[in-house]
Automatic annotation (TrEMBL):
It comes from the Bacteria. Keywords: Membrane, Transmembrane, Transmembrane helix. The keyword Ligase does not apply. The chain crosses the membrane at residues 7-22, 28-45, 65-85, 109-131, 152-170, 200-220, 226-242, 249-268, 386-408, 442-461. It comes from Pedobacter chitinilyticus. This is Oligosaccharide repeat unit polymerase. The keyword Cytoplasm does not apply.
Length: 471
């Protein structure tokens, strides 16, 4: 606790400054928004940063304090600027409204939601730091010295991929197939990195084929996140060793993806999901749509709509904030209770409510989406925390999430030989859902069954003497 003073005292000062500017909502929003960038500075660059000393800072960016914080807080806090600009009458930083801006009730709601998001950012980082600075005296494991780890990782990745395909055929095992597939993707990415560093043709070939195959499949799904995740994984792994190259390509790549993905995904969904065309045909048409000059205006319009409503989802947060507690009291422990019920296997509870239906009910109650609309618009952790207990819930649940994230990462590193396989492959493979977060019902499920998957893999590798106690 003593060591984290350099973080939480200045962070909370910024939060209370934002809170004190309640009557100036636009300024309050900006202070809270900039506060998240200040937290990035405090945790990554300041003299008071709390970083593990076992590796150089640049070689541990897949740990929660770096990658998870960047993605989670980036989506939760930083991307709201597009919605705020749209509210002010701007589009792509250009003034499009002919009337002067006037503060409204919505301005106050946007500022409130940004303050809540900033508070959640403080909470999750504080949770990570408190666990990260503790001393561990538990048993560590490493890969057997007589075995080549590069080859072992290749085999584990390949077996995980085959197992994931097999489990897809069994409804009760489908969730495990997702975790195993993620493990296979991270194994392939790590293998590719090892091959490039060691100039090993076999590792480069395997890693490139597996990663490329997964990336191609991601382009058929219609989900923007699947493509973005593949790019994030590759760039995050390569950055410590190819800093200038990755730094040079990062911003142009992100810009291009954010520019084309909304339109690309909408074409895929419109044609492939409806059954009108095959996924491959829909993908070809999506590429044609993007490349045709006459569609540029449509792409720009679709992209701005994505940036303002789907990228950050603060618009939905403001809807909840206007509904609770003004028109409906806080949910209390109801959401958490539903989350634990969702954990029960349906074989033991045949009448268990469908998790998606339960999660969507609070969206309907707030009047954000019509019940007849066939869309999924689930909440995020910060929203469920707020809906449960207001500001206290937003802070408490995000703090617990930070604690759990770091505990799970430490366990993965302790079981699987340290940072490279433990953090990069097992933690991020089994708990990738923590990167952006989901509603409580799905997140608790992801955490519990992700841990079960990691534990089973650990037991199998221990039984085969691939992992041995570290002396």
């Amino acid at each position: 606790m003593q060591q984290t003073k350099g973080f939480f005292i200045p962070a909370f000062l910024v939060f209370f400054l934002s809170l004190s500017l309640y009557d100036l909502p636009a300024l309050s929003y900006l202070v809270a928004w900039l506060g998240s960038f200040y937290i990035f500075y405090l945790t990554w660059l300041s003299p008071f940063k709390i970083i593990k000393k076992d590796l150089p800072l640049i070689q541990q960016i897949m740990r929660p304090i770096f990658l998870l914080q960047l993605i989670f807080a980036g989506f939760m806090c930083c991307t709201s600027i597009f919605y705020f600009l749209d509210h002010l009458g701007y589009e792509y930083f250009e003034k499009v409204s002919s009337t002067n801006f006037v503060t409204s009730e919505q301005t106050y709601l946007i500022a409130k939601c940004q303050r809540l998001s900033f508070l959640g950012h403080i909470a999750i980082v504080w949770g990570i730091l408190i666990v990260q600075q503790r001393k561990q005296n538990r048993q560590y494991y490493s890969f057997a010295a007589k075995k080549k780890t590069d080859t072992i990782w290749l085999k584990i990745g390949f077996i995980s991929y085959i197992s994931a395909i097999m489990f897809q055929s069994f409804s009760g095992m489908f969730q495990f197939s997702i975790y195993l597939n993620n493990i296979a993707i991270f194994c392939a990415s790590l293998t590719l990195l090892k091959g490039l560093r060691n100039k090993n043709g076999l590792l480069i070939t395997y890693g490139a084929i597996m990663f490329g195959f997964n990336f191609v499949n991601a382009t058929l799904t219609g989900y923007k996140e699947h493509i973005l995740v593949n790019v994030i994984i590759l760039f995050a792994l390569l950055f410590p060793y190819y800093k200038r190259t990755i730094a040079f390509f990062t911003l142009p790549t992100v810009y291009i993806l954010l520019y084309i993905l909304p339109t690309y995904a909408s074409v895929i969904r419109l044609q492939s999901w409806s059954g009108e065309k095959s996924a491959q045909e829909a993908r070809s048409e999506a590429f044609e749509t993007i490349l045709q000059d006459e569609n540029e205006e449509e792409i720009v319009e679709t992209n701005w709509g994505f940036l303002t409503t789907r990228f950050s989802e603060i618009s939905m947060f403001t809807g909840f904030a206007s509904h609770v507690p003004e028109r409906k009291d806080y949910y209390g422990f109801q959401i958490l209770e539903d989350s634990f019920i969702a954990l029960l296997p349906r074989i033991f509870y045949p009448n268990k409510p469908i998790t998606e239906v339960v999660a969507m009910e609070r969206v309907y109650e707030a009047g954000l989406i019509n019940r007849e609309a066939k869309v999924s618009a689930k909440t995020r952790p910060i929203v469920d925390g707020y809906l449960s207990f207001g500001y206290v819930g937003a802070f408490f649940f995000l703090f617990i999430l930070g604690v759990l994230a770091q505990l799970l990462n430490d366990t993965a590193e302790r079981w699987f030989g340290g940072y490279e396989f433990g953090c990069i492959v097992m933690f991020n493979g089994c708990f990738q859902a923590l990167w952006r977060g989901n509603n409580f019902e799905f997140m608790l499920n992801n955490i519990v069954y992700g841990f079960i998957t990691m534990w089973i893999v650990f037991l199998v590798l221990r039984k085969m003497n691939i992992l041995v106690p570290k002396r």
